[in-house]
């Protein structure tokens, strides 16, 4: 299990998580509830890849998502 992405914007975390799941890469979001409950706290929502062997493919999808079209 490895963290792939973190953002103060939970919508970004959710969008990327959906793209990874669509690509067949199991992932989970952490700290989302904590970040919403404690505004201003140093906890950003995080996206974690469940299987280490999916990390490379997930990193490539993240890079493509961040690149301008």
Secondary structure blueprint with pairings:
Elements: E1 2-6, H1 10-22, E2 27-30, H2 32-37, E3 46-49, H3 55-66
Antiparallel strand pairs: 1-3, 2-3
Uncertain runs are none
How large is the share of residues in beta strands? 15-25%
Rg to the nearest angstrom? 12 Å
Approximately how much helix is present in the residues? 40-55%
Residue-averaged pLDDT: 88
- The neighbouring-strand order within the major sheet is 1-3-2
SSE order? EHEHEH
**Looking at the structure, what is the overall shape?**
globular
What structural class is derived from the secondary structure elements? alpha+beta
N-C termini distance: 30 Å
Biggest pleated sheet:
3 strands, antiparallel
How many beta-strand elements?
3
**Number of helices in the DSSP assignment:** 3
What does this structure look like?
The chain has a three-stranded antiparallel β-sheet with strand order 1-3-2, covered by helices on one side. The radius of gyration is 12 Å and the shape is globular. The model has no long low-confidence stretch (mean pLDDT 88). It is built from three helices and three strands; from the N terminus they run E-H-E-H-E-H. The chain has helices at 10-22, 32-37, 55-66, and strands at 2-6, 27-30, 46-49. The chain has 69 residues and is of the alpha+beta class.
